[in-house]
Structure formats: structure tokens, C-alpha cells
């Protein structure tokens, strides 16, 4: 399906906006990028005083128009600093938009000199990109570290996980963001210009107060186990037994009788260090081999690593979403002025249905605050790339 096919499934232009304090969000969808961005810009005519940073998220129907969208918004709003990327859908105030041309924008007025935008870092070693960023940070912050970095990444970069880890180690101790998602082969990021290839974003000083939360879209179905024999992403033994045998035991007899039913439903999960099973990385099952007893997963593994199997479950995902929202509210989210939300492409309408349930849950718990975001090809929290999760950042 091409860009034209994706953008032409609506002939109406729809738009809305919401403001709170130093923040304002707006969204628009329409038959073409020019109509949509004009409608969105009209919603942004009354900006927060001193607005100096914008976030722009677009559906992949408008991927090829990213530069035009950025130029138009910069001219109409007067805001020069922008970050963002492309997703299979975008999020805004109480609405999720999939499979059609749409944009979601957040603008904010932050304290002077409280942020720095950085362009694409494509390698995890101190190459030119990371070295330049560290030099800028040292001049800007001195001995301080940024409070947080809001980042976007290219899922095609084979060193993405290493870049995220190196970036977190060298700059902000906590990263939040998502990976670009597109069906047309281009994955643009925005960091004051349109680019691709690595990780880009914006560093925020500690005085920009934020609180973040992560919610899982899967729930464990078996006990915590240990990989005892593995190579690369092939698991041969779990708890000293053939991996496939343990897998069948954990998923239960009903599913084991017809393994075709597990596609998109059963996954491998790897608990984080110093955590119980509540925080884990979810990875796809790539292949199952009953004859050899091997299970292949979408993650490089090694003996001694902990593992459990999990299922993608609507009820469990909703329960965890509400848990996360109550927790983030208790940690300061009740005073939030606005938020950015990054949800996995496997969530949204694929998990909760077509009625914008994730955004409605956020509204129910936090009220009508400006929200922007997108459906990502992977979510970033702290120094990790997750899958099937939702990551919420609230500005206080």
C-alpha cells in the first residue's frame, strides 16, 4: 500500500486542540498533508506565551511530506525548534488515528536555555555525532546531567540498542521515546530538520519537571525460568530441558495441540536485572522446532539469562495500563500540565479496539490535559528498547 492509498481514505478534514498552562496540543487529519497541516496550524494561532519547542508526529501516509510539514509549522507558529517522527498512527486528546493522513502536534514554552536538540547519532562509539553532543552538553550544563532525553530512533539501525545504552550512559540517565514506524520504506525523524538513520531528540535540564511511566501489553503465563544452553538467538535448553518441551508445558495443552494459534499471542519475555517479572522486555518467537527441541527468539540470549513466556492479553493490558496511570498520578502526575505518549503498534486498535481506548483511559485518570504521541515500532524507557508497551511522560 502506497502513500497515496493511505492518505486518500478520508475526504473530510477534522481537527481539534487543547491548551493547559505552558502547553498546547493540536491534531488534524485530512485528504492531503497541506489541508491537514493548515487545519492544525489554525488551531495553534493562540500559542502559550514564549512557546519555543514543538513535537510533530505524522502518520506514514504523510511520510514523504515531512519536510513540508515542518517548514509550514515553523513559518506559521514562529517556533524554530522541533522534534518528532513518523508512526503507523498518531495520538492526541482522547483520540487515536490509524491508517489515514494525520498529524499530532505539541508546543510548549520551556524556560530559556532549558533544552538542546541533537541530530542523528548512528554509532554507539564516541563518533562525531556523540562527541559533538557531549561537547555541547558540557558547555551547556557543566557538571550537571540532563534530567531526561526525549528521543526517536530508526528501527533499521542494527546497533540501535547499543546506541540507546551509550546515549543514556553519556548524557541523560533516563531516555523516553519511540522508534519510527512506516509501511513505505522511509523512517524520517525530525530534529530541527528531517533526517534518519540513528537516534535523535532533545535533552531537557533538570528544572523541566517530568514524571514517566511504562505499561506492559503482555502478561506472564508460566514461571520464571533460566536459559541453560543457547547460542545467538537460538535457545536449546531451559532449566536443563529441551526448550521446546518447556515451552509446550508453559503455554498449556490447548495451545500446544495447535501451534498456529500462538502467532501474535504468545511471546518470550526477559525480566530486567534487579526486577521481578513486573518489568521485562518482550520479544517475538521467531521459530519453534519440535524435532531439535529449539526455540528461536527475536533477541540475542546467553546461558544464565532469565526467561518467561507471556501472552498478549486485552484484559491484562488494560489492568496494567490503569495501574501505571494510578502510579504516575501518585508520583506527581496529578499536577501535570501536558503529556507525551508512545504506544506500540501492537497495542492501540490491535489490542484495545477501534474506540481510542488508551487515550480515553489517560483522560479518565488524568483529566483533559494536552497529549501528543504516536504508535511506534518499539518504545524507549530508561536505557532499553521495549516492545508491546506504552510509555507516558508528563510535564508538571
What's the helical proportion of residues? 10-25%
Number of helices: 9
The radius of gyration computed from the alpha-carbon positions, rounded to a whole number of angstroms, is 21 Å
Indicate the mean pLDDT.
Answer: 90
Main beta sheet: 9 strands, antiparallel
What general outline do the C-alpha atoms trace? globular
How many domains, in number, for the residues?
2
Structural class, by secondary structure, is: alpha+beta
Q: List how many beta strands DSSP finds.
A: 28
Question: If you had to describe this structure to a student in words, what would you say it looks like?
Answer:
- This protein has 396 residues and is an alpha+beta fold.
- The protein folds into 2 domains: 3-216 and 316-395, no CATH class; 218-311, no CATH class.
- 23% of the residues lie in helices and 37% in strands.
- It has 9 helices and 28 strands.
- The chain has helices at residues 3-7, 33-43, 66-77, 128-141, 160-170, 243-251, 253-256, 314-330, 357-366, and strands spanning 14-20, 23-29, 53-59, 82-87, 89-92, 95-98, 102-108, 115-121, 148-153, 175-179, 189-191, 194-195, 199-204, 210-216, 218-220, 225-231, 234-238, 241-242, 266-271, 280-283, 285-289, 294-297, 306-312, 338-344, 371-376, 379-382, 384-386, 389-395.
- Strands 15, 16, 17, 18, 19, 20, 21, 22 and 23 form a 9-stranded antiparallel β-sheet that branches.
- β16 (225-231) and β17 form a beta hairpin.
- α2 (33-43) packs parallel to α3 and α8 (314-330) packs parallel to α9 (357-366).
- The relative contact order is 0.16.
- Mean pLDDT is 90; it is low at 1-9.
